[in-house]
Amino acid sequence: MFVIASLMLISFNSCEKVSEAPGGIPGMGETPGELEISEPFVPPNGVTYEVMGGQELTLTNVASSAQTGLKSVSDNSKEKIYGSGGSIHNNKFRFWIIVKLKFTNISNKDRRITLKEGMIFKVVEKGYQNGILLKKVIFYVRKHTTRTVSILAYCVNRGRNGSNENLHYTIPGVTKSKIMWEELLESLKGRQVNIENFIEQTPSPSLKSVNAGGLEKYKEIADHLQNMVWTLTNDGKKLSQEQRDFIQTIPFVEEEN
After folding, report:
1. The domain containing residue 227 runs over which residues?
2. Per the domain annotation, does 63 fall within a domain?
3. Euclidean distance between CA atoms 60 and 93, whole angstroms
4. How confident is the prediction along the chain (257 residues), in pLDDT tens digits per residue?
5. Is residue 6 situated within a structural domain?
6. Nearest to residue 169, comparing CAs of 39, 35, 73?
7. H or E stretch including 2?
8. pTM check: above 0.90
9. Total of domains in the chain
């Protein structure tokens, strides 16, 4: 009887472990536990990196620093901003998660850095928000150089404090959350989400213009997406039909594989 009871208990615990529901994603919202990772982040050979919190920026600051178009090895600017995040709070648009990454490439080759969709930024200090990328980010680090970039991400812990320059982060890897993948990440593949897709490129690649209409569209999309994340992490619900319909209105864009 004891053996049977023990087996039943193990079976129950196993089912409980693999069962995930909105509002019950470990490490997200207020759900206890560690953030679960399906694929660790491993930089290319010869590349090391540091992660820290970024300074608070306005949307115009971010837009003027965002890289436009597809990335290339020739684009090795000291500091650029990539990714997507933020929402409207008290009638103002705010970026909740900005992380600064410093990559050093000691190899004899230029290296491509790929931060996949679903990539997690885990904050070290307690009481602050962890972040997630909803879209892939790609940039390059030339050989024998150090490059610093800032990454925008979405908050997965509503109600906690946002990022600041005094915080420290790790990049454990890509989220394992089935809910996040099925409800949101898969639906956003190929769509216009990252800030760099909203900056108008002028004929000269050295000049960029900030399109006011593009920024308003970015704000609308980012605000909706941040609230979708919180629907899954904090509210304990799947996406509504209205939220699903909104995703379908987001245009598709050309992406680097």
Report:
1. 23-249
2. yes
3. 11
4. 444 444 444 444 444 455 799 999 999 999 999 999 999 999 999 999 999 998 877 777 777 776 544 355 555 555 788 999 999 999 999 999 999 999 999 999 999 999 999 999 999 999 999 999 999 999 999 999 999 999 999 999 999 999 999 999 999 999 999 999 999 999 999 999 999 888 754 333 443 445 556 888 999 999 999 999 999 999 999 999 999 999 999 999 988 77
5. no
6. 35
7. helix 2-18
8. no
9. 1
